[in-house]
Amino acid sequence: MLVNAHRAYCISHLTYSAVMLTSTSAATKYEMNALNSRIWRIIGIDEQTAGSYKLLPIPDLIDEGYERILKRILATHPATQPPSRCSLSLPNKKSKQGCLP
Fold first, then answer.
1. Tell me, what DSSP letter sits at residue 96?
2. Which of 63, 65, 81, 93 is packed most tightly, with the most Cβ within 10 A?
3. Phi-psi region of 34 (alpha: psi -120 to 50; beta: other; left: phi over 0)
């Protein structure tokens, strides 16, 4: 139950803020990781057990969250999609919209 509370209140906030947290200094990430390790000790989890709960150290969590957001943007953004046939073709007399048959 404590692991779920940790995920809900701490990890979700860090994952949501991953884009902004990528620009933090290594010292700040170290401090956040120290706090996270302290929370793990209070809960009664060591680093090996944290892996079984799929809990990551803070720098890895930030990097993974940012990578997931970036992949989602690249997969759905119109600028990264291949152009449609209609946008490449010139209008002709047979087609009013300019799409190739």
1. S
2. 65
3. alpha
